[in-house]
Amino acid sequence: LVSVGNICRSPIAEAVFRKLVTDEKLEHQWRTDSAAVSDWNVGRFPDSRALGCLRHHGIETAHKARQITKEDFQTFDHILCMDESNLRDLNRKSNQVKDCKAKIELLGTYDPQKQLIIEDPYYGNEKDFETVYEQCLRCCKAFLEKYH
């Protein structure tokens, strides 16, 4: 799960998906992680508002931001991102990777409510983080149903 900085949307999506997989007792079948297309926040914990939103829903995460690597394109089956800018960046990076096996697409592709883009809540408020959480939950549930 990929976003620009890996401190808001993608760590929320990662934590939501990990909880869904754990609740379904499928954690042995899935390797879940998140990353950034940029190196701006490498090593930082998620935004405090993202952590607060997750805690509000009973989800914890110890994720620290990292940048996507060439190995990610070679080892993950799916790389899901949040918006068109992420998609362009990932497609450009994947073209430089030999043996890229990852299917790269927007997480919003799986949204039953057809909200294709998951907007960055960084400059918003808690309500915007809640919107991201709800979108990620819908999309991750639908993605898991499709591939389980």
TrEMBL record:
Q: Which domain of life is it from?
A: Eukaryota
Family annotation (SUPFAM superfamilies): Phosphotyrosine protein phosphatases I
Q: Which Gene3D superfamilies match?
A: 3.40.50.2300
What's its EC? 3.1.3.2, 3.1.3.48
Q: Which GO MF term does the entry hold, naming one?
A: acid phosphatase activity
The record's Pfam families line, in alphabetical order, gives: LMWPc
A GO cellular component annotation here is: cytoplasm
Q: Which InterPro entries match?
A: LMW_PTPase (IPR050438), Ptyr_pPase (IPR023485), Ptyr_pPase_sf (IPR036196), Tyr_Pase_low_mol_wt_mml (IPR002115), Tyr_phospatase_low_mol_wt (IPR017867)
Cite the active-site annotation.
9, 120 (proton donor)
Major subcellular location class: cytoplasm
Functionally, this protein is described as follows: Acts on tyrosine phosphorylated proteins, low-MW aryl phosphates and natural and synthetic acyl phosphates.
| Protein name (Swiss-Prot/TrEMBL) | Low molecular weight phosphotyrosine protein phosphatase
Q: Which organism is it from?
A: Sinosuthora webbiana
